[in-house]
Amino acid sequence: MTSTETRPSTMIGRSVLRREDRRLLTGAATYLDDLELPGCYEAAFVRSPHAAARIVSIDTSAAAAMPGVIGVWTGADLPEIAKGIPPKVVHPQLRDVPRMPLPADFVKFVGEPVAVVVATSRYVAEDALDLVEVEYDVLPAVSSTGAALADGAPLIHEGADDNVAVHVVQTAGDPAAAMAAAPHRLRERFSVTRGGGHSMETRGVAARFDPTTEQLVVWDTTQSPHYVRNTLAHLYDMPEDGIRVVAPPDVGGGFGPKAQFYGEEAVIPWVARLLRNPVKWIEDRRENFVATMMERTQVHDVEIGFDDDGHILAIRNVFEHDQGAYCAGLQVPMITLSTLPGQYRIPNIHTELIACYTNMVPTSSVRGAGRPQAVVAMERMVDRAAEHLGMDPVEFRRRNLVQADEFPYRVGLTFRDGSPLTYDSGNFPLLMDETLAAFDYSGERERQTAARAEGRLVGIGVAAYVEGCGLGPYEGSRYRLLNDGTILVTLAAAPQGQGYETVYAQIAADALGMDMDLIRVTTGDTGRIPFGQGTFASRNTATAGPATLQAGDEMRGKILQVAEAMLKTSAASLEIHGDRVSVADDPSRSVTLREIAGAANVGKHGITLAPGILPGLETTVYFAPERAAYASGTHAVAVEIDPETGAIDVLRYVIGHDCGNVMNPMLVDGQVLGGFAHGIGNAMYEEPFYDETGQPQSTSYLDYSLPSSMEVPPVELVHIHTPSPLNPLGAKGAGEGGTIPVPAAIANAVEDALRPFGARITSLPITPPKIVDALSTDDLDGTGPWHG
Amino acid sequence: MKPGRFTYHAPRTVADALAVLGEHAGDAKVLAGGQSLMPLLNFRVSEPGHLVDINRLPDLSEPVRTATGWHVPALVRQRAVERSAALSGAFPLLEAALHEVAHPQIRNRGTLCGSLAHADAAAELPTVVTALDGRLRIASPRGERTVAAEDFFVFHLTTALADDELLLGVDLDDLPAGTTTSFHEFAGRRGDFALAAVAGQATRDATGVVTRCRLVAAGVGSTPLRLRAAEEGLLGARLDDSALAAAARAAAHEARPTGDVHASAGYRRDLVATLTRRVLADIAAAVPTSVPTEELTHA
Ligand SMILES: Cc1cc2nc3c(=O)[nH]c(=O)nc-3n(C[C@H](O)[C@H](O)[C@H](O)COP(=O)(O)OP(=O)(O)OC[C@H]3O[C@@H](n4cnc5c(N)ncnc54)[C@H](O)[C@@H]3O)c2cc1C
């Protein structure tokens, strides 16, 4: 057997154009709402208008009687599925509160579904929503972590003493003693708001039940079809093989919120089963604003201790995390906890999480997932410390970076996958050098000095980060030689635009030593591969990638073994060219892949296989990484502020990025740039507003400032590649790095621009009014804006 | 986000349109470009029983030269205004403001008159038409009437139009010789409604003294807001730094902003001062375009 020979990479690492693009660009993509399900009914949800209330009664009779309405169900009408949806990531101390698909007694946030209307069309269903009469007994609500944690705050969930969901402390070294002994200590309080995922395609579920086979098929715009299937099997008390969950190949964006499970996903298939008729629900944008999870605000109290030479001696960060009305999972704050130290060697660390319930839609990961907030806490304090010492902030960073020869580097904390926080590989000093060389840091400082002399407010910001990515537990890849002689690669993970059909065909082509043309990739269907986790946490290239490599390698071995038997030769001398396996020194002796499939897979009815022919050419490999890999990056930005309006003009932006070995550079650049747009939104635009009663105030794009192409400035990209030793591809994650340090970098630059006035920026996003405020609260020299 | 039930009418003549409006007065809405109305219908903020689509009415799609200037009828799209050399030549304010209105896709459908009839207090076009002292031609089953822009805008999203009236178009007079205009806006994002905007025109005599002046702000009142104190202070003055500063102060005083999640009232007030000063600085720096060259050489 020769399948372990190393063949040169020919496809991996190339900027192959995406196979998906033709259908996406010609409008031929199939999104959930494009599925043709003849006779399908459409659903709409009655949603709570109150942030906290007891449901006194629900009268559905008028709605049910409306022509075109098929049925109306409340939580009380569906006792079979009245089970709590388990949180995705838990902690032993989590005080979990059941999140019901349709709550029957209490509503805890505006937008929470309380009844479903199924009708012949969505128009009729929406007409009927107005006829469902719900009587609420309105209760006091809480809409910030501050209000939730205040003495005497209204209790969001009955039977508890307070609104704390979980309180976790992690330490490394002796942070209390080190802080007390530090020659310099600085403190600040930062609030960091993150927005939602705002995928172009909203959530959606369609389902059809076949009573003959008792098969329930569910189409779902989810990032995690297997997770949805497992959760449905649990809620419905059905065997998982009775449920097939399919994420259509063209899901229009996920970004985190679609990796969660929502009540609507439990209700729609269930009513399709009750009705024996297909039912679909496509979330509209208004529902998306109130009922799809988002990340929202964290409040960080951070203190840094350092010496005269600019060595960080200790960091202490205590932060409040808004969990929303229920805990859908603790992944976000757990990631924040461990992301704090970033690229720095910090001997003493105290990182503390207080997650609390509030009367707002539950929170979940959104691209970056808890990391941007930690990076703000760390990188803003690094700038403050440098300022305090009168040291260049880049020099301060250089003095504290983990060095290239210190990997694997043990931080002393625990990552959210449960492993000791260990950076697998990286080269932070090189990343800093390359980024700042591209940025022309010293040149930018000179231009800043010249601009200041003219009275212009120009500032420079740098921010560095690490990103735990490529998380477990595992991801799988399944190969099958089809009867026509082509290869089908099946992944459990569901793409939302990343180009899996292309990238995994590249990896498979190299693993098989075959042309990409003969390889097709299919994704996101629990009927095609039994186990899977999904697309989140920048994980798939580092998990499904190695699985695809190894399964392909095994498949090549099997193909060659069968060819060897068919050609009566030794596999050592076989080669694959196009659709043919031939003897290396005698190409006239060959078999086609179609003939191999005929011999091994199709066979002859009742006839014994010839010796050496393997029955059924298929391989499945699940790859489980030992622990998370660490991608890293450094961003540098120059901004100019208009002191009168507070407008921020981004003059230059350079991203230095290290995601290990790259499968397709063009797609990685796309991920980084897309992530950057999210970062710009977090830094300068996006904020989901709620008033004190928990009413959302930004429920359309009129009020929610998603950046458009006009707001996202040009970026220059710099890549370095330190392979991960944790997987055979050396890959790390690339999906979130573009986002993570942008708020910190922009905030550092803005504060640097305002330094002549000593104005402080402590809350993100940074909007023009906040800048004008920061300029006018300090007693300035009269050049600031006019106040009447 | 599906509209409620309505009956759709697509009249072919103004008379028919007015008849439908008259018959269902109070329960009918005019549909022009649909860029403001359709979102309101989809949000079910507005649930009229009848929609009167005026897009098939004849002779309302091209600007018309009049004795004193231009008439822009109801179906002239915002993009057409922006691209019309004649209109942007005569009224650079229109083009400048249109660059800040939404995005090209929306301006391709949205009409100038639809924006006036919609009367969002933060919209650019009502402000500019007020600054240009436009007159609105209005028809109803009772006949036609003309209303000055300043009297047309009553409140945020409320105009002088009665339920059964149709806005036929707007008349804009050519600017007198020696007039310069400027528009400045500040918005959260490109294409957003204004946090504040100021449209201005000033006529100066050969010695640079302001003889005529009009300043109107958007986003800081319940209608386009005439900045009368600022205007008055400028009459008879030259546009030097102190005149600009005084006008900016006066403008900030007379602005009537309210705060919301995006910006405080104080911030918007500051913006009015800044934008007023910038508008006037532009005017001061510009060679008045409509001054005949002979006059300029004599000055
Ligand atoms: C994403 C987006 C961004 C936008 N940004 C801006 C912006 O920055 N600034 C801005 O000013 N606008 C903005 N708009 C609104 C846009 O300019 C609209 O086109 C305009 O407000 C309405 O014009 P319309 O022709 O589309 O009118 P419609 O939407 O058809 O009608 C609007 C209202 O006016 C009434 N109406 C229309 N025509 C007549 C008539 N002839 N007689 C009587 N009543 C009439 C209708 O009954 C309705 O009440 C934006 C719109 C969108 C969708």
Automatic annotation (TrEMBL), chain A:
Show the InterPro entries listed in the entry. Ald_Oxase/Xan_DH_a/b (IPR000674), Ald_Oxase/Xan_DH_a/b_sf (IPR036856), Ald_Oxase/xanthine_DH-like (IPR016208), AldOxase/xan_DH_MoCoBD1 (IPR008274), AldOxase/xan_DH_MoCoBD2 (IPR046867), AldOxase/xan_DH_Mopterin-bd_sf (IPR037165)
Q: Which UniProt keywords apply?
A: Molybdenum, Oxidoreductase
Q: Which residues form the signal peptide?
A: none
Q: Under the GO molecular function aspect, what terms does this record hold? A: iron ion binding; oxidoreductase activity
Q: Where is the Aldehyde oxidase/xanthine dehydrogenase a/b hammerhead domain?
A: 26-140
- Keyword Oxidoreductase present in the record's keywords: the answer is yes
What's the domain of life for this entry? Bacteria
Per its UniProt record, what PANTHER family does this chain match?
ALDEHYDE OXIDASE 1-RELATED, XANTHINE DEHYDROGENASE
- The protein, known as: Dehydrogenase
Origin species, per record, is: Pseudonocardia sulfidoxydans NBRC 16205
UniProt lineage: Bacteria, Bacillati, Actinomycetota, Actinomycetes, Pseudonocardiales
Automatic annotation (TrEMBL), chain B:
Query: Is Oxidoreductase tagged as a keyword?
Result: yes
Which keywords has UniProt assigned to this entry?
FAD, Flavoprotein, Oxidoreductase
The Gene Ontology terms for molecular function here are: FAD binding; oxidoreductase activity
The answer to whether UniProt assigns keyword RNA-binding to this entry is no
Which SMART domains is this protein grouped with? Answer: CO_deh_flav_C
Q: Which Pfam families match?
A: CO_deh_flav_C, FAD_binding_5
Q: What is the name of this protein?
A: Carbon monoxide dehydrogenase
Its taxonomic placement starts with: Bacteria, Bacillati, Actinomycetota, Actinomycetes, Pseudonocardiales
